Amino acid sequence: MVNVALDVMGGDLGVEEAVRGAALVSRESTSIFVFLVGDPEEISKALETVDYDPRRVQVMAADGFVAMDESARVVLERPDCSVMTAARLVREGRADAMVSSGNTGALVLAASHHLERLPGIRRAALAAVHPTERRHGPKGDPFALMLDVGATVTADADTLVGFAVMGSVYSSIISEIPSPSVALLSNGVESKKGTPAILEANQKLKKSQINFAGNVEGLDIPKGTVDVVVCDGFLGNVVLKMLEGVGEVFTELAKDASSRRLKWKIGLTMLSSGLRRLKRLTDWKMYGGAPVLGLSGVVIKAHGRSESRAIRNAIKVAAKAVDGKLIERIQHGVAEFNRSHEG
Amino acid sequence: MVNVALDVMGGDLGVEEAVRGAALVSRESTSIFVFLVGDPEEISKALETVDYDPRRVQVMAADGFVAMDESARVVLERPDCSVMTAARLVREGRADAMVSSGNTGALVLAASHHLERLPGIRRAALAAVHPTERRHGPKGDPFALMLDVGATVTADADTLVGFAVMGSVYSSIISEIPSPSVALLSNGVESKKGTPAILEANQKLKKSQINFAGNVEGLDIPKGTVDVVVCDGFLGNVVLKMLEGVGEVFTELAKDASSRRLKWKIGLTMLSSGLRRLKRLTDWKMYGGAPVLGLSGVVIKAHGRSESRAIRNAIKVAAKAVDGKLIERIQHGVAEFNRSHEG
What we know:
Chain A has helices at residues 15-28, 40-48, 82-91, 104-114, 157-174, 196-206, 220-223, 233-260, 262-270, 272-282, 308-323, 326-342, and strands spanning 2-7, 32-38, 57-61, 97-100, 125-136, 141-147, 181-185, 211-216, 228-230, 290-293, 298-301. By secondary structure, the first copy, chain A, is of the alpha/beta class. Chain A has two domains: 1-117 and 294-343, Isopropylmalate Dehydrogenase (3-Layer(aba) Sandwich); 122-256, Isopropylmalate Dehydrogenase, CATH 3.40.718.10. The first copy, chain A, has an eleven-stranded mixed sheet with strand order 3-2-1-4-11-10-5-6-9-7-8.
């Protein structure tokens, strides 16, 4: 049995949607147990409206939560808020993993507060998938992994190396790619292109046992040239938000075109099944959530606008990471790297 | 009369296309004189095939050129190659501006070799336009300016401030926006978000006389929230190439959809006038070229795949920058900033 602590507070769509996601899991999977962490009254009310298996769901009271627009730092003043309580459950070993669709910064901070950084890992990272033209792995995933996308700002060479190792392990577990290709995001594919940290990380990764593809550049992000793209959190944040922005602009342009000319409206209608397919492809934010990697516990961030299905997916990803021994394998990967690098 | 030194060698489409662009200018404008810099035989042969006004075109012999795939550094071993000769013409005052559609790195290096950096400017920058949803300025330009996109890798606070001042001046001349809005690209809109260099630049720009809008994030790039986006050359390179990649992926997906189902093919045909409009919008690389800013002369990079019209546009942009007193106004802007900042 995998025990998952679900922070049901603070998501954009409210407690009910998170509880509904957990209820789905309780009916679909006999090997996952979910703690519903948050306001007990709100949770009880939500549970009354859904169909769930009481053997695999338990309410865990928390005091308060962090809203989306609050500073992450308030978690330190609210030790019993939902995200801190979920993190504590993991630290205490009562839960194997935590999931939250609330404030990202608060999640990273709460997790970092309660869980230790893994030996050999300099900085924890937030990893997220982004849509790509090329498909990845045996399941043909239409997305690639990128990290860090916001847990750090700057990153030195050893931090980038840690990201590469963690991304490789995570991708191999979740996308089931035996040896995921990993690259550093840079301003040119040549190994002498990049910031000093990238140049040094490139040299170090060349000697590692991960499937290192060298540098990739901006063009390679939408194409999906590699399975895992490594960068500092500043760059990852800009890139990911830009992809979101491009998606929004295209949606608005299509709406505008549809309202402007009948011919365009009909054309768009004829394309609708294709556009839906494209929409699914770009709806990557719902693909089961973004892991915080590098801590001594499985931590999954679900998108703030997660509906019940997205919450369910995030819980399942968390359980898959636990079953796949994510933490042990990251530790092993880092130790392996350090051995080969010293040798 | 504005004298423009056009490096006709090294573009992807060959000497003929560049010469044809200059020929167009010679017939359309009586106030621009173009030096055709490159292999005299090739130029003469190209001139025979086009209609031009000989009063405003002159061949200027150069010895060799830099190919697209060569290292920029070879310009130092080829002092008489086309891009170095064009830069020398500007240094000697025989030309007011130079234009090249060849190797970007070679252009930046040749220009930096022959032209001085302007007082108060720490680093020269390459600025480029990118397509945006929002339109800009009195002409309704469907693009915004971004700099640096590749002349530098890292940038300290004062370098970013210099980019902001230069971008503001260039945008006001070329897009005719009286007071262009300028922002720093960061991982959040709050002024405390960003790398140390961005935090410091944010504080300095707040006190400046340019129309500083604070930080923007990735989402704002395709939306076009501001007229000028400032970042270091590493980030600008990644962002710009990513936009190119997204465009390419969409084009391929549309082609694929068209070949897969008759209904989709018809739908795309009905949308074709709209798609052409979109294509024009995203065909930003042809908008007259990217300036190298911060040197004591007007330097314009035309896209490597420039056809004659794009070369013509780049020459006209160069002339417009000279007429608009780009160099003097950058110097004035920097002096102004330094005065207000000391005061």
